Fold this protein.
Amino acid sequence: MELNTEKKVDKEYWASPFVPPLAPSVNDVLIYKGDLLPGETLLLGCTRQLLELSHEQMDIDPWYSGPNVIKQEWTTNTKQYTNIIGDGVLNLTKALSDGVLRMCSKTCRVFVARSFNRRLETMRIAAHFPKAEDFSIKPTRVRFFDDYTFFTWRF
């Protein structure tokens, strides 16, 4: 997959290269990989460390352009994928979290998301920190770590 990264990325922009735990570590990427089924994968957002796992990336304001980038709001997706992955996509607001989960339940077989457990010092925009029992559709698998939790749904 070739990316056009000519678009200037402001250092304050959310897609700038954060370090773990805000950005996924190598081990976190392995967790994502381990839960995915063979098939087409959509990445919600443009998390640099997860680009290699996805065939397409969807974001309302992507930090790069390319043939695999879909400029679109996540909850409006109607295309079917085998897998959908996201990093922090459940942390913005409860309404968006619920909308993302509803969309995924209709458009993929597996949804894997890493969600932060609390506001981290370098975090600016997260306002919702869900627990497994908060979801209307219960996750199939939950892996809890100090700073974040991996939720996996198999629909």
Q: What stands out?
A: The longest helix spans residues 94-107. The chain is about 15% helix and 20% strand. Residues 26-154 form a domain with the Rossmann fold fold (CATH 3.40.50.150).
